[in-house]
Amino acid sequence: xxxxxxxxxxxxxxxxxxxxxxxxxxxxxxxxxxxxxxxxxxxxxxxxxxxxxxxxxxxxxxxxxxxxxxxxxxxxxxxxxxxxxxxxxxxxxxxxxxxxxxxxxxxxxxxxxxxxxxxxxxxxxxxxxxxxxxxxxxxxxxxxxxxxxxxxxxxxxxxxxxxxxxxxxxxxxxxxxxxxxxxxxxxxxxxxxxxxxxxxxxxxxxxxxxxxxxxxxxxxxxxxxxxxxxxxxxxxxxxxxxxxxxxxxxxxxxxxxxxxxxxxxxxxxxxxxxxxxxxxxxxxxxxxxxxxxxxxxxxxxxxxxxxxxxxxxxxxxxxxxxxxxxxxxxxxxxxxxxxxxxxxxxxxxxxxxxxxxxxxxxxxxxxxxxxxxxxxxxxxxxxxxxxxxxxxxxxxxxxxxxxxxxxxxxxxxxxxxxxxxxxxxxxxxxxxxxxxxxxxxxxxxxxxxxxxxxxxxxxxxxxxxxxxxxxxxxxxxxxxxxxxxxxxxxxxxxxxxxxxxxxxxxxxxx
Length: 510
Known about the structure:
The protein is of the alpha+beta class.
């Protein structure tokens, strides 16, 4: 590989405050360029925490706040990516830098809603604000923040963890909440001596403990045939080829930047039925969502908007990374926050899209519409879903060979690359990212527990027009969120997609 695979990306021996710890890997540099060029702003994993009975009231609010701040301090100190800054974001070689102190008060915002009937709207408004807010002072302040929202009774708290993707990936958001819950339930384990009003942490030297980027942890073999095929697909003129999967229906537009999002929930019983149905049809929930989005967009977009589609599935690379390798004996990837994810793309042939459009048109003109998906459309959904699962399984079976990250290593300048990308025709119509199941703990004890978890992505200007994110708490509800850039995706298309997904998921999981 080229580009970012060199010794300059190894950890530095300079332990002084403000010193460069290591240069970024290709994925980290890509995410930094996206944020620098305002093509993306942040990602959120929000969880609903239920405190123990002794803290679930306003009288104990001060004690509850201290409990959360002390637990947060433990997580921050355990995860080096939460206490480093970023420098050189406008250059070809951005890097992480060491910080000496961190004031948690600069990173945590407490919000209360005294009217319980307005609490849900307050949550939506808070989420909207976080999705549209940038991160500043990158070299002196780590790119993350926490917003804690509670109602008048403090019987539950929504904790929104928001971050700059340059620091770590989506799975890291799940790891953060898992570790925060553990710290809340084990306050006497490695207690932190910290108190208001400063809430200031003296940070350990992260020079030797900052998790390495994936490129220097493993070998990333790249077959010449795969690389040449990727170059051909990436650079061929879209207008010269009939049946292009490119998202011509959603032209890239850099400004104005604003994210629109909507979420619906699926109850635990329906989720269990849906998972069983997916297994019966040799697929997964992720594969099924891809198929349902295909059906919805094919129905709602005009035929002239495009004859094919392309979508993306991000996936976690931690399964392939070594645990406690000789060079990093302290490293346990599955418990570590870092940028260790990749993605795999899918294309949907014009013939498939035309068949779906015809079937859905016939269903719409049925003399006795049942409002349920017709049998022939259901058959297509399960067939496409199974194909998605097969493609994803084949990608994972290949391990690190011919991974997108290997191709990204050849890009010498991500700021220039992303500026060019913004002038091209959008390729991806949607992506589906599923963080899986988070164990929220038991209801019947005196500890903290989780009852809801939601992943929300801000708009990515040159990437997928629509992002569908999924997250579930064990034995609880599943949250499905759709987000898109305002003014790029028509409101009717986004809302129709959300309505279709909610209706069809509940129908298929009934």
